[in-house]
UniProtKB/TrEMBL annotation:
This is Secreted protein. Keywords: Signal. The lineage of its organism: Bacteria, Bacillati, Actinomycetota, Actinomycetes, Kitasatosporales. It comes from the Bacteria. The keyword Signal applies. Residues 1-30 form the signal peptide.
Length: 159
């Protein structure tokens, strides 16, 4: 009888420790800020304000760019824009986010690309200014947009 009580006590203690361990487990890694805005110049294709939305899960990160001011002159089907968003690292170098994700776009409507996938490291601080967004449409029309100043409220910092 005594060994059953001891076994039950040990099991309860182990369960309590496991639950406590979950309560103190590190939270999911995150990027701050999660959104930032830029003013982009896309050359003869126009430009304007765009919102960048970032996410992070470990070293995997995504960024989505959306703008009602950067518009498409033609109707485009879903997932038809091949995009590369290059951001500048505060420590030097660049990080590229790539993908072919976009919703269908009506002629004259704002453009959204992403989520574009990239790899980050803890402590990376990434800024759109000095980088570029390259969109390839129909496999041969290339549109390059550049930020005209620092993103607001500041660079994306990855944990």
């Amino acid at each position: 009888m005594r060994s059953k009580r001891l076994g039950t006590g040990v099991a309860l203690a182990a369960g309590t420790l496991a639950v406590a361990g979950l309560a103190f487990a590190p939270t999911a890694q995150a990027v701050t800020p999660q959104t930032a805005t830029i003013v982009a110049d896309c050359g003869t294709y126009g430009g304007g304000e765009a919102t960048l939305t970032a996410t992070q899960s470990g070293t995997a990160a995504t960024i989505t760019l959306s703008s009602s001011e950067i518009t498409s002159p033609l109707a485009l089907s879903q997932d038809s824009i091949t995009s590369t968003l290059t951001l500048v690292k505060a420590s030097g170098g660049t990080t590229a986010f790539t993908g072919t994700k976009n919703p269908a776009v009506a002629a004259g409507a704002g453009v959204t690309v992403g989520p574009l996938s990239g790899t980050v490291a803890a402590g990376d601080s990434l800024q759109a200014y000095g980088g570029s967004l390259k969109m390839v449409i129909f496999g041969f029309v290339t549109i390059t947009c550049t930020a005209q100043g620092l993103q607001s409220p500041g660079p994306f910092v990855y944990e």
